[in-house]
Design brief:
A: 256 residues, alpha/beta, 9-stranded mixed beta sheet, two-stranded antiparallel ribbon, 25% strand, B: Fumarate Reductase Iron-sulfur Protein, Chain B, domain 2, Rossmann fold, 3-stranded parallel beta sheet, metal-binding (chain B), transmembrane helix (chain B)
């Protein structure tokens, strides 16, 4: 049985030119969707159906895509959750965070909350789907993977470690069937009130490299970070856990 | 007597069969897409094109040109007279003697064809082509003996029944090859298809010494892009494939073939013939597309390729890698005596792979995506395009609005090696007080790479946006150090220039422009005192634009006598850097740049002068020890006598 898979796509932004493009992670989401569902993959976008970047996604060989038409100022989540509730869907694929707009990375979580589905964050691959259970590989830092099984339906955010999006071809992109659905958007007032400014690079914690030899440096660059100072609290009371977090924040000078 | 009517009947029957075959062949070409040609003017121009343009190419091989004139001339003349004498029974003595003369001429020619076929070079196809000289000799000898009694040299009825039988067999063999074979796909097909190909050539500008090298724009929109099936070619392209004589001149010149990459231009054209006629390539008797010894897979050898007019070409007829091996250097087109357009066909098929299948190999996909998102192939920030000239004090068009010369910087702006060429050129222009400006960050990739990789949509978009920028400013000349951008601006942008942004503008390569400056005495140059120097002709400057002399004149102005390579000027070997070949990077036995560097080394030169940043990069990529590689602008800048104020 082929699962019903929906890939959510957004308008990306090229880091060098700032120009609209097929978003890196969403492209991988479509690629993974094509692997799971082939031509039956549904691709969903909220926004302007005239946006030319959508054709870059379609150029991956999509016969059709659905656009929930709404204004730029409107919130995408209500429209999405309304639409997804109507359909019978097994897996929703999103990027981890969008390259434009709020870029909060909250869409999968907000959707999951509304739909009452689990979220599987940072997926590298979905290996198999059998009897309503999917075997999923999660991407961990430094190329590590964790294998988990998840019951359908679920929402997965696709990590950069997933297979890269295939080449986008001009012809199929031009011929895609755009199914535009009108939605009543709620204006996202918080987003509208935001002011955008070019990002400043975040200050980085200085790392003193103690390694003396090239081999040590190589190890330092590649080895799994040794937590050491971390501590796992499972059985303590909530107050104790909160206290531990509070202490850490003071120690790290986050709050004074 | 039996001999009186037998030849006439045989001639008429074979002539009729030949015509039927020819009509069938024409119907095969008509499966292609419509393309407007001028039927009458084309046919009228055909003999001139044959005698002038085609013969000009064949004349490079004196032995073959004389042989062909004798054989073909003798045959055409004798065929006309044979019909006159044997079908219409013109019995004047002078006509029969003329016929004898024509036949003897043809016999001589056929003898030399035969002689060359005794020990044929590997580039020639064997198979039916080995039979051809024998058929030609049979034809000529048969009709000579047949005509001797008619001319009154021998008595009527000489030789009796036995000779009659032998001669009848001769008539069937000779005319079978020449008339029947012409229509039904034998080696003589080349005469019939070739003549029509000359008449209805897709680039008539090439005749009469002209040049037409810009690719034709792809039609965007619709159900498919590019050429997927043989029937997607224009009908006169199909006709062109059929004109091939399998001489293998293209094979001998092709850099990809020599490097062992899976492309043999001759086989490619024969594959197209298989495609248009349907069937397999089992009858092909020439060199195959090279197969790498390590990765030999079954099904790649001759005999396994299958095709039909409506079958997808890359599904069974040829491998996609064959198409991606081409560097678009045009050596094959330049060399082809039938003036077949290999590069057009290859790019047409690449367009399908890129724009429909999304299947550009290796870095192709990444590079195209970068070009779309950042207007340069490596994905650099468009706002950093002018960084190279931070210390050059170059005026930007946005502020200056007009200048004599617009310097088209090209994507070399992002590459540190190419920047040395750019700086040298700016130094020379400043020394000559040229009124120059650049577009700065407003410039975009010329689209050359996208177009050769088959993405004509991106090329057209870039061309239109570049033209829109250019139309805002006024200038008399565009000069560029990149022959690829030069070719696009000069030969390919005109198709999209609706605003007339380049109207009346002279597009020049920097070597041409510098040569003008030197000739006008605007640059004072010291004599070059280094060692021996050779010059590498970039394909897009030489074969694409015919500029062979300006770079050599410049070197001469420094007192350099260029030690020419064996393959130079129109026969220059590609550096391997064109047509997106470094991007698609199809593996072969060796690298094209290494072979070119061997050509350089063979002259004993210590320095190879180049006129292209791409060639510079490719040749400098060859491991040392090797001769030094420098752009002509760099050599000139080194010899510049700067006035001290």
């Amino acid at each position: 049985m082929q699962p019903n898979v929906v890939s959510l796509i957004s308008i990306g932004r090229h880091p060098q030119s700032g120009r609209a493009r097929r978003a890196e992670q969403d492209g991988r989401g479509v690629e993974l969707g094509l692997k799971l569902a082939g031509e039956k993959l549904s691709v969903l976008h909220v926004g302007n159906p005239e946006e030319p970047v959508l054709r870059q996604y379609a150029g991956m060989g999509l016969p059709a895509m659905t656009v929930l038409k709404q204004d730029e100022t409107a919130d995408a989540v209500p429209a999405l959750s309304d639409y997804l509730q109507q359909e019978k869907i097994d897996i929703v694929l999103t990027g981890v965070r969008s390259e434009s707009g709020e870029s909060s990375g909250m869409v999968p979580y907000l959707l999951a909350e509304k739909l009452g589905w689990p979220v599987v964050a940072r997926v590298a691959d979905i290996v198999s789907i059998k009897d309503g259970v999917a075997e999923v590989l999660l991407a961990l830092p430094r190329g590590q993977r964790r294998s988990v099984t998840v019951k359908l339906p679920f929402i997965a955010s696709v990590d950069n470690a997933a297979a890269p999006a295939r080449q986008s071809a001009f012809g199929p992109g031009q011929r895609v069937r755009m199914e535009s659905v009108n939605t009543h958007g709620e204006v996202d007032q918080i987003r509208v009130d935001w002011q955008e400014a070019p990002a400043k690079p975040r200050p980085k914690r200085l790392k003193t490299v103690k390694a003396k030899t090239a081999a040590d440096r190589f190890k330092a660059a590649t080895a799994k970070p040794q937590g050491g100072s971390g501590k796992v609290m499972k059985n303590e009371s909530a107050a104790e856990k909160a206290k531990a977090i509070f202490d850490l924040l003071i120690e790290e000078n986050v709050i004074r | 007597m039996v001999i009186d009517w037998l030849p006439s009947i045989l001639i008429v029957v074979l002539l009729a069969l030949g015509v039927i075959g020819a009509l069938r062949r024409i119907s095969l070409w008509r499966a292609g897409q419509p393309e407007k040609v001028n039927l009458i003017a084309g046919l009228m121009a055909m003999p001139g094109r044959y005698l002038n343009d085609l013969h000009h190419v064949v004349e490079r091989d004196k032995y073959m040109s004389r042989t062909h004139v004798a054989t073909a001339g003798g045959f055409v003349l004798s065929m006309v007279l044979v019909i006159a004498v044997y079908v219409f029974h013109v019995e004047q003595k002078i006509v029969t003697w003329l016929l004898l003369g024509a036949l003897v001429l043809m016999l001589c020619g056929a003898f030399f064809v035969f002689k060359r076929r005794l020990n044929p070079p590997s580039r020639l196809s064997k198979g039916p082509w080995m039979r051809l000289p024998k058929s030609l000799i049979t034809f000529a000898l048969t009709f000579i003996v047949l005509t001797l009694p008619v001319a009154g040299v021998l008595p009527e009825g000489f030789g009796g029944v036995l000779l009659t039988l032998i001669l009848s067999v001769g008539v069937i063999v000779g005319l079978g090859e020449l008339l029947f074979g012409m229509g039904w796909g034998g080696p003589m097909k080349h005469a019939f298809a070739g003549a029509l190909h000359l008449a209805f050539h897709r680039r008539p500008e090439r005749f009469g010494g002209g040049r037409s090298t810009g690719l034709k724009p792809a039609q965007l929109g619709g159900e498919s892009h590019g050429v997927a099936k043989p029937s997607d070619f224009k009908w006169n392209q199909l006709l062109g494939f059929d004109a091939c004589v399998q001489c293998g001149k293209c094979e001998a010149m092709c850099p990809a073939f020599a490097a062992g990459q899976p492309l043999n231009p001759k086989k490619l054209i024969q594959d197209m013939v298989v495609g248009l006629a349907g069937g397999t390539d089992a009858k092909y008797a020439g060199s195959p597309h090279p197969v790498r010894k390590t990765g030999k897979e079954p099904g790649k050898e001759v005999g396994h390729a299958k095709g039909g007019a409506n079958n997808i070409i890359t599904a069974g007829l040829i491998e996609a890698d064959t198409l991606w091996s081409c560097t678009t250097c045009r050596a094959c087109v330049e060399e082809c005596p039938m003036m077949i357009e290999h590069v057009d066909a290859i790019v047409d098929m690449r367009r399908f792979l890129t724009m429909e299948k999304g299947d550009t190999p290796n870095k192709g996909s990444e590079v195209l995506e970068n070009i779309i998102a950042t207007d340069n192939p490596n994905g650099y920030a468009p706002s950093s395009r002018t960084n190279w000239s931070a210390d050059q004090n170059l005026p930007v068009m946005k502020e200056k609005k007009q200048a004599d010369v617009l310097f088209w910087v090209s994507d070399g702006a992002f590459d540190m090696r190419s920047q040395r060429i750019l700086r040298s050129f700016v130094k020379l222009m400043k020394a000559a007080n040229v009124d120059v400006a650049i577009l700065g960050d407003e410039e975009r990739d010329s689209g050359d790479l996208a177009r050769r990789l088959g993405d004509d949509a991106t090329f057209q978009s870039l061309a239109k946006r570049n033209l829109a920028t250019l139309s805002q400013y006024s200038f008399k000349k565009i000069v560029t150090t990149d022959p690829h951008a030069y070719h696009c601006l000069r030969n390919e942008y005109a198709d999209f220039d609706t605003e007339g942004a380049l109207k009346g503008v002279e597009v020049l390569h920097h070597t041409t422009f510098l040569n003008q400056l030197v000739q006008a005495g605007a640059l004072k140059l010291d004599t070059f005192k280094g060692g021996k120097v050779t010059y590498h002709d970039p394909c897009y400057l030489g074969r694409y634009n015919g500029e062979y002399d300006a770079p050599r004149d410049l070197l001469r102005s420094l007192g350099i006598e260029v030690a020419e390579m064996e393959r130079s000027r129109f026969r220059s070997r590609c550096c391997g850097g064109g047509g997106g070949a470094p991007i698609t990077d199809i593996p072969g036995e060796r690298r094209i740049a290494d072979m070119r560097m061997e050509d350089v080394t063979a002259t004993g030169a210590e320095l190879v002068a180049v006129g292209c940043q791409q060639c510079t990069a490719m040749l400098e990529g060859v491991v040392e020890p090797r001769p030094e590689v420098k752009d002509i602008a760099e050599i000139l800048a080194g010899q510049l006598i700067e006035e001290v104020h």
